[in-house]
Amino acid sequence: MLARVANNLFWMGRYIERSEHLARYLNVNYFSSLDAPNELSQSSDFVLRSIMFMASGEIIDSKINLKEEDVLFNVGLNTEKSYSIKQSFNAAYENARSSRDLISTELFESINRINHSIKNYDPEAFVKNGLYDFTTMITKSTAEIRSKIKGTLLHDETYAIIMLGIYLERALQVTLIINSKCSDASVEKNEYKGTLLEDGSHVWSTLLKCAFSYDMMRRLYKKTPIKKNTLEFLILNEDCPRSIKNSLNQTKKYIGILAKHQKITPKSAAFLIGKINCEFEYKQIDDIEENIEEFISDLINKLVVIGEKLDDNYFKVTNHIPKTNELTPQIQKQ
Amino acid sequence: MEKTIELPLFSSYEYNSNFYDELFSKNNEVREIYKTLFKLFSQYSVNEFNSLNERAKESFFNLGITFQVYGENSVQEKIFPFDLFPRIIEEKEWINIEKGVLQRSKALNHFLWDLYHDQKIIKQGIVPLDLISSSENFIEQMKGLDPPEGIYNHISGTDLIKHSDGNYYVLEDNIRCPSGVSYVVGNRTAVKHALFGIFNKYNTHRVVDYGANLLEIMESVKPKGVDNPVCVIITPGVYNSAYYEHSFLAKQMGIDLVEGRDLFVENDFVYKQTIYGPKKVDVIYRRIDDLFIDPLAFRPDSLLGVPGLFSVYQKGNVCLVNAPGTGVADDKAIYTYLPEIIKYYLDEDSILSNVHTYHCSRKNELSYVLENIDKLVIKPVDESGGYGISIGNKLTKAEIQKVRDTVKANPRKYIAQPIMSLSTHPTYIEETRSFEPRHVDLRTFTLLGKDKEYVLKGGLSRVALRKGNLIVNSSQGGGSKDTWVLKS
Asked: Which residue out of B244, B252, B276 would a mutagenesis test of the A interface target, given it has the greatest number of A Cβ atoms within 10 Å?
């Protein structure tokens, strides 16, 4: 497979996953605030700041007054914002277009059709009453795309590269969501200084819902979500398909397909993915919970380095300029 | 004489008896081969057909069979206009077309070999030297070079029209990078989906095997010493208007679609950059024009090509499909010599007729052209896509004078032909929600390889969507139709 096309497929997977996480975060946070337990978490400003933090990574200055319509538009459909869902999905589409000869017609057709729906979504309708409809459409669409990836492609290197993109991005997005909700919890804790119910279950329920994991967590723990069991489930439960550990296990599986005929050298992507999986094998939630900010920051750095190594190892296209004196064509004289 | 047919979808169908109408005969009857199809279409209400048409367009859109139009602030994605009413060609008629286009492709291949070697045809005075020496498409570096298996024009596109006498005439030969074959397959798929039952009543040759045949042709011209050739298609990239076609063909053949930056030259071989390192490439179907394939050999400002590629080709270590320099033979001035070229190399009479052509480079013909521009079509010899064509009877006096001045200033650059009566075919016009006659031509696709030849049984019927317009090219607002070649 061409290195350039492999890069396209990898980023197609990443952008599809990113679009879904953003859409779900927008949906769950906005609507869960409507039945939040206290004034702060019900407040529109608090929710909008949380959404902006997750989407753009920016902490918005508290003096800036956020307008709901602006935030929803920016995160949903603003093509001038690189973090918007529309831009993210369009990037998935452009990457798919550049590699459409390698993917199935069915998969490309889905991506193309969904991209048209997003492109033509009326921004006015979206900010007025289309938030639920739009974000639900994105989550359903990305599920359809993943099903086409799984059901119509050969499970070979092409598939492994797309899945690597999906799972690396999933690990990153879940980490960012945890970061964002931990930050919300911390703001709430400071605001109410201990008057809050134990650990504020609302914020952890919302976190689980943001990762499609609420029902399964309740089924497994049979307890109200609190910080510790929520983080344990989302970070360390290898059976939860949205957990970081599960995502890392999957990246290990797919790098294994890609690197099966290669020697694993230290500092290669395969080595780093193997190493991070080993670290997770022996992690305890007590260690993580105590230093969650440090854990998140360290994990994000490691995921970024893995992405860079994948680029170095598999996707690099270098400019080869042959020596001109050797290659100047011989013009035959008459 | 204007005639009117009274049927709901055909209520605006007023065909002009000066043209050959593919659906109706001169005595106002539906032609035999169209009867079943006509009956089917007559059963649709306007609304039913309209929704069928919309669904077909939607399917093209969803499949990404589109091109992009770049505006100042936005990019619009458009489908190539497609008409659901197919064109039908009977097998006996097709056999003649097939033999004719194959004959032309073979003769052109001999001609190219001769031009780049001994130039016997020029020395014997059959084709004038000045036509070759003045051609911008003659590539000096190709002189004396033997392309693998002696094939230059592996892929040829021949444009035909059906004149008012009911006979096919060749409008032009395209042997650089003829495009459109993906729409042949796309159109067939759309018609199958919309009119699935009809294929039980029409036993039609399939068109889906083009990709497999093209791959066989590519593999047959592998460089010497290669057992299992690695073939690729090179594209200018996703922003090229034919990108859909490039990716379609790559997918059909299961080969890589590369860009210039994916390939590099080292030690006289071409390599592609894969996830596991460099891999040698043996045959390249290039959809990049000659001058852009290698910045070291041709245009140094080309970012699309591969530095050093032509040198590898010269050493016989890679095969380029089509060979560089084929454009010299599809020059519209050379076209007029095709009957003589066929006779010279194959010792056969031309199976398909040419449209009579006036060379503006010949003094007596130039004066005729300058006096009769209103009755002629004036074409630049080296353009494609319908660009630069003037149709005399559509021009104002001032425009005629302007054309006259342009031709006078550079006579070698122009030829002129009588205004041909392209046949008309029923075409659904969305504005009137009914079928109307529109002019059509037919582009056929011929492949030549080592011990193998192939003609796609169908081709692309291109239709001029504007009433009375004779230019069918998509770049000029033309659409296309599925073309059925019936099995006898």
From this structure: B276
Rounded-to-integer distance, Cα B301 and Cα B60, Å: 36
> What pLDDT, in 10s, does the model give residues A237-263?
999 999 999 999 999 999 999 998 888
Q: Cβ–Cβ contacts within 10 Å for residue B30, how many?
A: 17
Q: Are A328 and B296 in contact (CB < 8 Å)? A: yes
Query: Comparing A108 with B393, which gets the higher pLDDT?
Result: A108
Instruction: Give pLDDT, residue A325.
Output: 41
Alpha-carbon gap, residue B7 to B30, rounded angstroms: 13
DSSP string, A270-333: HHHHHHHHHHHHT--HHHHHHTHHHHHHHHHHHHHHHHHHHIIIII--------HHHHSPPPPP
Question: Least CB-CB distance to B273: which of A2, A261, A322?
Answer: A2
How far is residue B485's CA from residue B488's CA, in Å, rounded to a whole number?
9
In whole angstroms, what is the distance from residue B169 CA to residue B227 CA? 42
The partner residue sitting opposite B311, judged by closest CB among A94, A157, A327, is A327
Closest CA to B434 of B136, B146, B46: B46
For A90-145, write each residue's pLDDT tens digit: 999 999 999 999 999 999 999 999 999 999 999 998 988 888 999 999 999 999 99
Token pair listed for B444: 């056929």
Nearest-CA residue of chain B relative to A108?
Answer: B63
Amino acid at B341: I
Tokens for B3, please give them.
Answer: 């005639």
**Pair B459, B87: CB distance under 8 Å:** no
**Helix A157-192 and helix A131-152, axial crossing angle in degrees, nearest 10:** 150
ipTM (interface predicted TM): 0.83
User: Do residues B351 and B99 touch, judged by C-beta distance below 8 A?
Assistant: yes
CA distance B309 to B293: 7
| Residue among B275, B310, B313, B320 with most chain A CBs within 10 A, to mutate | B275
Residues of A with CB under 8 A from a CB of B: 1-6, 94, 97-98, 100-102, 105, 108-109, 112-113, 116, 157, 161, 258, 261-262, 314-322, 324, 326-332, 334
Chain A residues inside the 8 Å CB shell of B266: 320, 322
Nearest to A113 by CA among A135, A140, A132, A79: A140
Helices (H), B116-199: 120-123, 129-133, 181-194
What region, left, alpha or beta, does residue B147 occupy, with left being phi > 0 and alpha being psi -120 to 50 degrees? beta
Structure-derived torsion over alpha carbons of residues B133, B136, B137, B138, reported in degrees to the nearest 10? 30
From the list A8, A100, A5, A3, the residue with the least C-alpha distance to B247 is: A100
Q: Give which of A212, A87, A208 is closest to A146, Cα–Cα.
A: A212
Which whole-number Å values give the CA distances from B220 to B114, B148, B172, B272, B379, in the listed order?
Answer: 22, 9, 27, 21, 36
Whether chain A has a CB inside 8 Å of the CB on B258: the answer is: yes
Q: Do A317 and B62 touch (CB under 8 A)?
A: no
- List of chain B residues whose C-beta atoms are within 8 Å of the C-beta of residue A258: 275
Spatial distance between the Cα atoms of B300 and B67, rounded to a whole number of angstroms? 28
Q: Characterize the bridge pairing of strands B434-449 and B168-174.
A: unpaired
Residues in chain A with CB shorter than 8 Å from the CB of B275 are 1-3, 6, 157, 161, 258, 314-315
Min Cα–Cα distance to chain B from A110, Å: 8
